[in-house]
Amino acid sequence: MRKIEHIGIAVKNLQESNLLFEKLFGNPPYKEEEVESEGVKTSFFMNGPNKIELLEATNPNSPIAKFLEKKGEGIHHIAFDVKDINVEVDRLKAEGFIVLNETPKRGADNKLVVFLHPKSTNGVLIELCQEIS
Ligand code: ZN
After folding, report:
1. CB-CB neighbours of 43 under 10 Å
2. Cβ distance 68 to 80 under 8 Å?
3. Measured in angstroms, how far is the CA atom of residue 8 from the centroid of ligand 1?
4. pTM of model > 0.85
């Protein structure tokens, strides 16, 4: 695993949170994107070298809707940049981590993504992401 690629924050209302984070960082999101298969609408901010992803649920069965119900708004996941996502998945499985989707899926912002179950990572949802070239 390489650097932290971004931190994902679950929000109730993306438009309101976009304004809030725009005030915080001093610049607007550089991208908004809906990932229909995941039931989320996302926006991305760059702040210096750091990237923040905001996520809003687009339907009640979305993982984000369930997260908000259980925990409320806040940090939802930490994403790490990986060079070869399949190699990382094999390595982490061999180490005993629970992989939520073994076949990488298309995430937001031009990435292939795999999630690790938080019950195998001290309660933190970890996203592995590989840039699609
Ligand atoms: Zn993410």
Report:
1. 23
2. no
3. 5
4. yes
